[in-house]
């Protein structure tokens, strides 16, 4: 699959952070020649050290020739993407240029305003990331199995789209094409509004006594996990996609206002119905999120097994599951307070649950019915 | 541990839903005699069938004698707890009575208003639950390792507190004592406000095109998981704890209003600082949530391993981890779109991460650096 990309010549990656260095690692692993350029000499050197590509700066300093790239991946912070893509298109008139920023319309508009050659530009958004950033956190498999959205402009040459599609596919991503506006509306709802809600919620915990927080269960942990994200990056994302985010936040505010009024008079007329509607609407929205593998939401059957929190115990459990030939569809570990014992909740095909329970019990596992 | 409870005579459980039936299963397993009473004959019969206790209704119909309980656990829906506890205290003048509702002040006040004998009443809140409800979902280990808060009234006899503490401990829970008001303030923030935020967020997804939702990552799944909760139950919880929830929701609304104003003019003066503050405040709140085992937040080291999504593959991985003698502190499976390959993120003691990486790579695992 990578042969085509490799045959088409070297890839220049501008910005050696988490995404840029991960693209480099993935391509290098496939035998593609990659070069790194970063405003930070340190990031560029680290990127080269971990094997994401050759340092352009070091090569030029050593008087070596850097080959002309056929593809340029701009992976800078979002607020300098337009400028960087425009420069790259100008400096390398044969190269196809893509970027990996998570908001696409403003970039396309900015490039059009500057008169950039949009025939050779394809906006892209690999929907992969980590709570950590920088080249040290990079990994070649970052994009494996993840969605990667391509947003071609009306002016974009189909050959450019094909090249960027190959890049994403070579890195193991699942490619989708959307108009830039539609992409931005989608990520506002599935990524940016969740980030805002998680941050608003976690912000409330700043003054909570620690002995109250010690009572917290998985619900609080799940709802606040992404609140650990990087403020610097998110300022840029929220700014760039403000137009798509605001309507949803207005919707949230209307629902919140209604709920506050209801809770200020919780025995008033219609109060219980208002509360029930809020929760039921949440049920309805949540149920629409597809399961893994991009399929339709599917009800798996669960079983829960008590596991000693000791080295190897989970391994023994999953070996036992593996011996049955039944595929484990999902797994949750329940975190516990005080005791070193855990609960492993296993999801499997509903038609094979009973068989698995029996097999595990025969092997001495304590399955919770 | 359970000998004391068993020696003190039978336990009557009123309400054979998830919590009541789970209490029954756990106690029966310890050899304690339990009886079930439920307004629904079906629920009472199912509870008895799964082994949570003897059906009081069936025993009385057969002309048998039901022994006087020494302890009564009221596990009815929250809106009938006051009435049920008051009746139980009146009908069984020797029994200690507890309930398992998740809001405590209103119940204590309601009982005091009715002139109930608070010396024998101890409010309690086992902080365990599932997204599913009813006796079929019950499990004796539901409370194992989970927090269980006791809220004694000023009038409560210390012997009554001791008895209910034994119950919780026998069921494997980790017991904390709090004043009812303090408990309600704590759960408002760690449980009820997160539920509201998750429901408000998930509600936005009702009209989102499915092909947008198919791009969703783990962030959206985590933040909306608890939005699947039962509306009927949550109406009662939100009503009962409205007073403690509203101040936090006012705080959320102020932050949300500020953010909406900022996003409506994202290039205005101070806009970037406002956005950065929101995310940074979320960082600060999130970082205060303790890790598992109730300890202080601890930074584990992560490593990520590529795992074929086939039966037994996770088992082989965890067997390999187990052989190293290094304890697995946490585990996340990254759900993936389209491809049947997964990423397992393993958390371990930072001092042993390198050793584990080496050991796994020697065994042929693909560890992402």
UniProtKB/TrEMBL annotation, chains A, B:
<feature type="domain" description="Prephenate/arogenate dehydrogenase">
    <location>
        <begin position="9"/>
        <end position="297"/>
    </location>
</feature>
<dbReference type="Pfam" id="PF02153">
    <property type="entry name" value="PDH_N"/>
</dbReference>
<keyword id="KW-0520">NAD</keyword>
<keyword id="KW-0827">Tyrosine biosynthesis</keyword>
<dbReference type="InterPro" id="IPR036291">
    <property type="entry name" value="NAD(P)-bd_dom_sf"/>
</dbReference>
<keyword id="KW-0028">Amino-acid biosynthesis</keyword>
<dbReference type="InterPro" id="IPR046825">
    <property type="entry name" value="PDH_C"/>
</dbReference>
<dbReference type="InterPro" id="IPR045865">
    <property type="entry name" value="ACT-like_dom_sf"/>
</dbReference>
<dbReference type="GO" id="GO:0008977">
    <property type="term" value="F:prephenate dehydrogenase (NAD+) activity"/>
</dbReference>
<dbReference type="InterPro" id="IPR008927">
    <property type="entry name" value="6-PGluconate_DH-like_C_sf"/>
</dbReference>
<keyword id="KW-0560">Oxidoreductase</keyword>
<dbReference type="GO" id="GO:0070403">
    <property type="term" value="F:NAD+ binding"/>
</dbReference>
<feature type="domain" description="ACT">
    <location>
        <begin position="302"/>
        <end position="369"/>
    </location>
</feature>
<protein>
    <recommendedName>
        <fullName>Prephenate dehydrogenase</fullName>
        <ecNumber>1.3.1.12</ecNumber>
    </recommendedName>
</protein>
<keyword id="KW-0057">Aromatic amino acid biosynthesis</keyword>
<dbReference type="GO" id="GO:0004665">
    <property type="term" value="F:prephenate dehydrogenase (NADP+) activity"/>
</dbReference>
<dbReference type="GO" id="GO:0006571">
    <property type="term" value="P:tyrosine biosynthetic process"/>
</dbReference>
<comment type="similarity">
    <text>Belongs to the prephenate/arogenate dehydrogenase family.</text>
</comment>
<dbReference type="Pfam" id="PF20463">
    <property type="entry name" value="PDH_C"/>
</dbReference>
<dbReference type="InterPro" id="IPR002912">
    <property type="entry name" value="ACT_dom"/>
</dbReference>
<dbReference type="InterPro" id="IPR050812">
    <property type="entry name" value="Preph/Arog_dehydrog"/>
</dbReference>
<dbReference type="InterPro" id="IPR003099">
    <property type="entry name" value="Prephen_DH"/>
</dbReference>
<dbReference type="InterPro" id="IPR046826">
    <property type="entry name" value="PDH_N"/>
</dbReference>
<comment type="pathway">
    <text>Amino-acid biosynthesis; L-tyrosine biosynthesis; (4-hydroxyphenyl)pyruvate from prephenate (NAD(+) route): step 1/1.</text>
</comment>
